[in-house]
Amino acid sequence: MARPDKPDEKLSVDVERTEGDGRLPNVRFRMRLEGAGDRMGVCETNSVGQWTQAEDAQATFYISWLSVHGNFQGRGWGRYLLLSVLHELSGMGYRQATVSTGVTNYRAITFYGNLGFQVVDTAYAFTKRLA
Question: pTM score > 0.85 for this model?
Answer without folding.
Answer: yes
